Amino acid sequence: MKSQFTDLGRRQFMERFASLCLGVRIAANPALAQAAASGGKAKSVICLYMRGGISHIDTFDPKPGKPEMAGVKAIKTSADDVQISEWFPRFAKQMHHVTLVRSMTSTQGIHELGAYSAHTSYFMTPTIKHPAMGSWALKLLGSKNKVLPGNVLINGSPQHPGCGYMESHLAPLPIVDPAAGLQNSAMMNGFSVSDADRRTALAQAMGARFVDHTPHRDVGAYLKIQKEAAALMKSEDLKVFDISQENEKTREAYGKHTFGQGCLLARRLVEAGVRFIEVEDDQNWDTHNDQIESMENMTPSADQTMATLLDDLHQRGLLQNTLVMMITEFGRTPRINEATAGRGHHPGVFTWWLAGGGMKGGYAHGLSDEIGERVAEKPVTMPDFNATVAMALGMDLAHVEHSPSGRPFTVADKGKPVMELFA
User: Fold this and answer.
1) What is the pTM of this model?
2) What are the phi and psi torsion angles at 311 (to 5°)?
3) What contacts 24+ positions apart, CB below 8 Å, involve 81-88?
4) Is 202 exposed, middle or buried (0-12, 13-18, 19+ CB in 10 A)?
5) Which has more pLDDT, 312 or 191?
6) Burial, 147: exposed, middle or buried (Cβ in 10 Å; 0-12, 13-18, 19+)?
7) Please, are residues 284 and 52 in contact by the beta-carbon 8 Å criterion?
8) Where would one find coiled-coil regions in this protein (predicted)?
């Protein structure tokens, strides 16, 4: 008797099983299928992480004339009908490249929890550590440059989730000081390439028995890291980490602070084919005290760097294939605390943004209410945003990775890409 379990039936079964058990859908949406088939317009990502929870109404979602603004004004931008805070005059001139997502929302109002969800799309649990987006990108898409690391973290904090449960060779390469480049990467004086090759071969020979009898994936990952590090030390591509090769005018344009030089290094890494670069702003946007004074001190450097990065990528023809994203843990309360003159944590609504990489330019998605306290239209969660980024890169949102304990996970958990953000 012929089986009634046809190919279509199998596919329907798998779609329903994945939807119920994993919270994903296997190309059931024609728009998702088409986007996935195209491979995504973005080839690299630069993630700007504004540590501390940057205020949305003092930056990219102002409420003109409202007392919650504490006298801060909104200004016009290069995008019609999109205003931002007067503290970002340079960035305002780049708004035609940018999509603001003003309806971001979360339930995580603690820094560590908010940062973790922003980077991984998952809630923090005591039983497992999830990988950040850069590790997913490297795992699913590989590295465009076969010598350089495909995942780089500049000025990152120790709390960054890194590669989570994934193999250690997928972890981001940490760069503490972008002006100093990649430390301890050059050959020692008097130590030749042949010396390095001979020692590497000796180490591999001595460790072969251990590797053969230890099938744990981290052993293989360590050997892969060792091999890649040795190849990089001998490569001309190593010079990409040396930002002193940039002219002084360019370095000044980005800003001579860590965030500015980090973004300059990120641009160099994109040019060299690095897949995912995250740059953390070393300023603390956790403005519980003296909101206005703090923002006046911090915004000039952030405005300068972000505007220069977008303009530089555009002028070099890189922005169309490079997705720049800005994330933070949460927003800040609309009302300023009378006792501290600052704003508290506010995950109910906040703003993230995207630029380049196939996204719309000069567009504001979603709305917060009249004082920036709640989402009024088109809520977007952190997993939704990250699913959008993953789709822009051409990552398979339905692809399942298993933790060492056998639990299944997808790149953006149950997030659904926001199709309205694509150009």
Assistant:
1) 0.84
2) -65, -40
3) 81/364, 82/362, 82/363, 82/364, 84/59, 84/60, 85/57, 85/58, 85/59, 85/60, 85/299, 87/58, 87/59, 87/295, 87/296, 87/299, 87/300, 87/303, 88/59, 88/60, 88/299, 88/302, 88/303, 88/307
4) exposed
5) 312
6) middle
7) yes
8) none
**Residues 318 and 388 reside in one and the same domain:** yes
What is residue 182's predicted lDDT score, i.e. its pLDDT? 80
pLDDT tens figures, 118-150: 999 999 999 999 999 999 999 999 988 989 999
Residues 160 and 191 in one domain: no
State which of 210, 236, 262 marks the end of a domain: 236
Query: What does the pLDDT look like over 274-323, one tens digit per residue?
Result: 999 999 999 999 999 999 999 999 999 999 999 999 999 999 999 999 99
- pLDDT tens readout for residues 36-73: 554 589 999 999 999 999 999 999 999 999 999 999 99
How many structural domains does the chain have?
A: 3
Residue that terminates a domain, selected from 236, 251, 275: 236
Give the residue numbers spanning the domain of 3: 1-38
Residues 221 and 269 both lie in one domain: no
Neighbours of 143 (CB within 10 A): 17
User: How many other C-beta atoms can be found within 10 angstroms of the C-beta atom of residue 138?
Assistant: 24
Same domain, 158 and 122: yes
**CATH code of 270's domain:** 3.40.720.10
